[in-house]
Design brief:
CATH architecture: Alpha Horseshoe
CATH topology: Serine Threonine Protein Phosphatase 5, Tetratricopeptide repeat
Shape: elongated
Number of strands: 0
Radius of gyration: 18 Å
Number of domains: 1
Structural class: mainly alpha
Helix content: over 70%
CATH superfamily: Tetratricopeptide repeat domain
Largest sheet: none
């Protein structure tokens, strides 16, 4: 549901401002942290994304939607790390082939 938020950058920045205000006025609003996490991720603010998700889970640790989103982020991180290792290996192999030619 919420992971499908897809806006232009200016819309995302407005959404981020909205959630910043919500958090400012209610630091116990787990949903505001959660949705701000999603928006931060779409803006490429990955550190803030994780911090906000962790804060949402700190406030509401059994929320299924929050837990699913955390699992999704962890899976994406694992895929990215595997891809990076494969790319580095391919680059190294290509360099070694050039050195032997």
């Amino acid at each position: 549901m919420s992971e499908e938020i897809n806006f232009e950058t200016s819309d995302l920045e407005r959404e981020l401002t909205k959630y910043n205000i919500m958090v400012y006025f209610n630091e116990k609003d787990a949903n505001a942290y959660y949705y701000r996490s999603i928006v931060n991720g779409q803006l490429g603010n990955y550190i803030e994304q994780v911090k906000d998700l962790n804060k949402a889970l700190e406030i509401d640790p059994t929320n299924e939607e929050f837990l699913k989103y955390k699992n999704l982020l962890e899976q994406q991180d694992a895929i990215t790390k595997r891809s990076s290792r494969k790319i580095r290996a391919a680059i190294k192999e290509n360099i070694e082939k050039k050195d032997t030619n």
